[in-house]
Design brief:
Distance between the termini: 93 Å
CATH class of the largest domain: Alpha Beta
Helix content: 25-40%
Radius of gyration: 30 Å
Number of domains: 3
Number of strands: 3
CATH superfamily of the largest domain: BolA-like
CATH architecture of the largest domain: 2-Layer Sandwich
Strand order of the largest sheet: 1-2-3
Shape: elongated
Strand content: 5-15%
């Protein structure tokens, strides 16, 4: 700090001490450490500051709320820093899997507390698996009157490859074991799209017309 710089805390001192230039500079160091770059120094910064990038305690406390805001899909400046994600997940007992990317982890953290109310229900299981897969519409849960305490989970897998399917199967079963009622048992069925017929008609192309411009299977010559 330069000798001419004076702390903005001087007006709070007794009148006899306010005119002391040495005391003004002495307080400036404590103001920098405790308040940080706020108030008068928010834009200009402290004169001769040796640590211009160091946040003060008051600045740090002002951002504590962002630690508890996972906010998936939002800019990093408006949500929990990445280094606090595991801590926050543990705080709310959100599922943690090594297969989760950061956005998936943030989705589970955000939904952790409301999801407790639906644990053990079909809707709760559908939403839990949907958060991992990215869409609850890719999950259907079937229950059967003829087989009490049994249900089947049907999952649409949109990724290709045996490794991807194995990874998804591990997570789906782990999450199902967490959410399902303890007395129930289940099976998992995967639907893997292998061939897709897309009808996108345009002014020059009428689209797919079965038997006219499109054949399914083979036809004898």
């Amino acid at each position: 700090m330069t000798e001419s710089a004076q702390s903005t805390w001087l007006p709070y001192l007794p009148a006899d001490l306010r005119s002391d230039p040495i005391l003004g500079g002495f307080l400036l160091a404590f103001e920098r450490l405790l308040s940080g770059r706020v108030g008068l120094w928010a834009e200009t910064g402290y004169p001769g500051d040796p640590l211009p990038n160091l946040s003060g305690i008051e600045e740090t406390l002002a951002t504590v709320g962002s630690i508890f805001a996972p906010r998936p899909g939002q800019p990093d400046t408006q949500r929990t820093p990445s280094e606090f994600i595991s801590w926050l997940a543990n705080l709310v007992s959100a599922p943690e899997r090594e297969e989760f990317d950061e956005e998936t982890r943030r989705r589970f953290i955000r939904a952790a507390l409301p999801s407790y109310q639906k644990r053990g229900t079909r809707q709760g299981l559908k939403e839990t698996l949907g958060r991992y897969l990215g869409s609850p519409d890719d999950v259907i849960v079937y229950e059967f009157e003829a087989e009490p305490h049994f249900f089947q989970v049907e999952v649409v897998v949109r990724q290709k490859g045996a490794m991807a399917l194995a990874r998804i199967d591990r997570v789906v079963r782990a999450l199902t074991d967490i959410v399902r009622p303890a007395h129930c048992w289940y099976s998992v069925r995967y639907l893997v799209p292998t061939m897709q017929i897309v009808d996108a008609p345009t002014a020059d192309n009428p689209g797919i017309l079965i038997g006219v411009n499109t054949l399914l299977g083979t036809r004898a010559s």
